[in-house]
Amino acid sequence: MKLQVGLALTALTSVALAAYEPAQVYLIRKQSQSNSAPSISRQTTRQILLQRLGANQSGFLREIPDGKDQEEAISYINELGKTTASLFSQTPSSEPAQLVLMIEGLGKKELEDFENSIRSHKRGRTFVVDKPPSASANSYLFEQDLVAAGVKPSGCKLEAAFNPYAPTCWDNNVFVEKYDLKKVGLLFSLTSPSDLDTLVENIPSLFKLANNGDMEAMLVMMPESSRSSSVKQWSSNPILHRRALRDAETVIAEDTPEESTQAVTPGEKLGAQVWAAAPKGHIPACFQSFNSCDTQTNSCSGHGKCVDKYSRGDASEKRADGAAACWVCKCLATEEHNDGKVSKGRKTTHWGGNICQKKDVSVPFFMFAGFTIAFVGVITFTISMLFNVGEEKLPGVIGAGVSRNK
């Protein structure tokens, strides 16, 4: 009887340990990484994933507890997130393509074999996720959270993930997808367990692309033991997250102006015309063509035009070097009369933002700040001059004609 109880306790302990088997996350990028693999919470891992995809993350700090944990999470996001170009960089540099893959249904041996293939390139796992969420949480993350943040899974087979130049599967240099080794034939799944070998075979290609600065890959390897995990969400507060997204969409809908039916002639200034708001969602840093830029930004919100960022001349000609185009919005100033008609003089408005949707208030700000500084300087100089005059001693000639009483 005691032997049976001991065996039962051993079995329960093994099941409990298997249930808490951590998920392994690998970052393949040009930067070197430390030898240690820290344990990071699922909430921070979710934020790292969203940051690497350039997703909209309004109020992401509410996902992380206050105090030391929040500071640590921000540190991990800065360290493991996507590297952004310097604001004052003189030479334009294209950002590397971002590949994010989640592989579910991995057994212990498959995890070990995959780690050995990574270690053959003198790299190891970047970090682990204790108590990884369940398969339903993974589906919600890819089918709901990412879509709500403006990122859509590619829906392509695994082979397309290793070619960042495939236009049909890569959207704005981003490929994100979830694959399940144990579920064959579904829309977002591997065709067979042998496709894991395809991933292992393409690891050298990923390292080559990463070393050239063309791609960065984030591989999330989920153990089979996490499929029925008790953790049902990657987010710490999914209800709050959905409410914030709904409120943001409501505000955008209320602020959306009505679409104007007035036509614009080629020589007319873009100005006080009412334009439809740009579509909600992620606005990429570069568009591949003029048509995609003009359509997705609604003609730069009616306050600019789409141009090739790195082209020669007036930024409207194609480059002769054959490099990929980078179409962006070039914001223009608009002039408006008091009666609302577009014409020269009276009122000039400058626009900014990635789709020219924000008013540029830098000129009024600097004028106000300059006037304030000048006014304070004049007052200070006046007070200082009066003080210095008052400190001067009276000349002796003033008392020369005064006689003393006898």
UniProtKB/TrEMBL annotation:
* Gene Ontology CC terms: endoplasmic reticulum
* Keywords, sorted A to Z: Membrane, Signal, Transmembrane, Transmembrane helix
The residue ranges crossing the membrane are: 365-387
Residue span(s) of domain Vacuolar sorting protein Vps3844 C-terminal: 286-400
Question: Secretion signal: which residues?
Answer: 1-18
Superkingdom classification of source: Eukaryota
Record keywords: Membrane included?
yes
- Determine if Ribosomal protein is one of this entry's keywords: no
The identity of this protein, by name, is Vacuolar sorting protein Vps3844 C-terminal domain-containing protein
